[in-house]
DNA sequence: CATGAATGAGTTTTCATTCAT
DNA sequence: CATGAATGAAAACTCATTCAT
């Protein structure tokens, strides 16, 4: 089962020079913290220690930077999911794996995740960002297959709708990026544990 | 137990004229769909059928419009929660009530909710928007009291952290605004049912 | 000798209602303290307790208010000078009288004087404000006649140019409006005494 | 005796490029002739041959231009006065020197002087323009020291107040900028001569 | 690669003025 | 007389982008 389509590595100017990546990281952080529209190319250039005009030696436009950040995030995410799919384990183990992965990605790439969380509504139908809907549709499809397989096998209760539950889970997990602070009160592992616990069993105590 | 502080509503121009409210509604919709920064005062004025400068007869700035939308949303939300608190029911019933209310508010004020979801990260530490953190802190506090009371009474399992669970729930519920479409495939009631089911019991089938 | 031309009382809407005069006084104060351009009609209306649009029931434009203030100031000033001229005293007594009068006017109509001091450069060649140059030319003419008469009579030294001295005196006197504070350290009488002393004898001690 | 404080010139963008100075000169002229508020950034840009937005490449705001003009004027003026103070001559010679210098500065920097004359009232208590009051207080202090020293030494008559006389002199001298025209009827030297004559001996002839 | 100067189209905001009620 | 809503023109300022050096 292929989550990702045939590899189509986009490399406009694939001089993955340090400079480029450094700028991408700076931009991701600023976009995530102030919003894409509210971040100016000068903000990015300032932090990179160059003049705003000089950014155009590395990227063709502000939007190109934005796209590249999200595209590489989405590509990486799909690869991770692909790996889990490749393991071919049962529905419960697979979903647990997806959830663990999501929390890990949220921690490791918090800027891209935050950016996606804040701008996705607006991006959904934007030209040039179709890869986002495509990627997220592919992920949703895989998730629903797993949920429905689990329900068919009696591993999961069948009183809920797979699409709805998927979205609740997805949003709850990714939204943590808004309040999770590395080196804060909680570790990503604690979040994962708590989430899986809630996900598996809900809040109610056994009513034996 | 008081969720809201003493009423102190002193608006500089508190003429809740029809025109004002009409403009607020237009602005809320535009801010929610394109983002605050990407919405121009001219967009708002155009939809209101006036010139952009004329907006300043009603509001002192673009940000003032933004603030007023969020402030009245937060005020209304706190009132709703206050009502539930006033009923003084048990933890499970109270939380169920809060969740039902949230879905209802999400449906009725989707613009304000969407706006809050998309811009909250950026607003968190913005001057003039402190009422958002204050309100949300008050809500979180009430939620956690209920969760912990339920755990103490044995109604809820005590294997999870009240703060973490609250945030998962909050984010999952409010995030629905991003994909829920009135008159779409799902009703708000369906969402509520599915959510409560998941919230109460998780996904796993009884392992008897 | 007539300082003023035939009476041409300007009364566009000569309802010298209290309201009008009240507004003129408010406007004069604001124009004097913040400058004409930096004072908005709304500032004036606010202080008058009405809406800015309502000002237009009393005056045809912002500039009309400005003109009326300066015109009535100039008219009054010319009348005062006329009176002194009518006394027909000698050059020294006449100039002393003019100086005394100027300090008195400066004290009594500080707003108009201040306004004139700050905006005169710009107004000099403005259409609609020709009465200012006309009035001030008339005053200068009278002054120079007196100075030159005094020099001819041997009352004043004749080592200086009447036009230059007139301007030094005029500017020194009127400029006091910028720093003189009623009820402050100095009285207008003190200023007058000091000025006359300096004017008459300069700073140097007798070199006997 | 130090008139100026320790040099602390730290400009954010201290590239005294030709372009900057050129723009400053244009702005000074326009501000002086039409007033600060009545001069638009477009007026300045037009004369500089660029678009109004391009001004912001050189200066952060219209007010910043204003400040820079006045600040460099005040700095230069204080330096000149410092030089005179350094000569350490007697009160009469020192004051004569200050007056000569003032007329020279008035001629050489008529725009800045005119600007200061027209806008000082409004600027007096404006944030960011404190250096004006500070500078002028320092100058006043030096003048009064000289006047009082002269009175103590019997060089000057002691029938007048040093503060009042200083202000008369200052205003009479600087106000000439409003009517003095280079290449006009009078030279700056003529003004200086007339002023010193009046300043030293007043208008009255010897009453032998 | 980077600078520094500029463009041009747009933004929010201001404000004198008008006018139906 | 006054209000309240609006106009319309212009203001200051922003910012992505270009380009000669």
Automatic annotation (TrEMBL), chains A, B, C, D:
Stretches assigned to coiled coil: none
The keyword Transcription belongs to this UniProt entry's keyword annotation: yes
Lineage top rank: taxon: Bacteria
Listed GO MF terms: DNA-binding transcription factor activity; transcription cis-regulatory region binding
Entry annotated with the keyword Repressor: yes
Gene3D superfamilies: Homeodomain-like, Tetracycline Repressor, domain 2
Keywords, alphabetical: DNA-binding, Repressor, Transcription, Transcription regulation
DNA bind region: 40-59
Domain HTH tetR-type residue range list: 17-77
Name of the protein this chain belongs to: AcrR family transcriptional regulator
């Amino acid at each position: 089962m292929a989550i990702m389509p045939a590899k189509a590595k986009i490399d406009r100017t694939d001089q993955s020079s340090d400079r480029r990546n450094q700028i991408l990281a700076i931009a991701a952080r600023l976009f995530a913290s102030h919003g894409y529209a509210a971040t100016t190319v000068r903000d990015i250039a300032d932090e990179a220690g160059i003049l705003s005009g000089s950014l155009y030696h590395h990227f063709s436009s502000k939007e190109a930077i934005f796209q590249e950040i999200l595209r590489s995030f989405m590509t990486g995410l799909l690869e991770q999911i692909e790996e889990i799919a490749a393991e071919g384990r049962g529905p419960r183990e697979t979903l647990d794996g997806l959830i663990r992965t999501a929390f890990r990605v949220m921690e490791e790439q918090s800027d891209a995740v935050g950016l996606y969380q804040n701008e996705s509504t607006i991006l959904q139908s934007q030209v040039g960002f179709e890869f986002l809907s495509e990627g997220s549709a592919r992920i949703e499809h895989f998730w629903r297959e797993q949920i429905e397989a689990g329900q068919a096998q009696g591993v999961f209760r069948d009183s809920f709708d797979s699409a709805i539950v998927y979205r609740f889970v997805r949003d709850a997990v990714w939204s943590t990026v808004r309040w999770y602070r590395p080196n804060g009160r909680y570790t990503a592992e604690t979040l994962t544990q708590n989430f899986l616990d809630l996900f598996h069993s809900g809040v109610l105590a056994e009513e034996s």
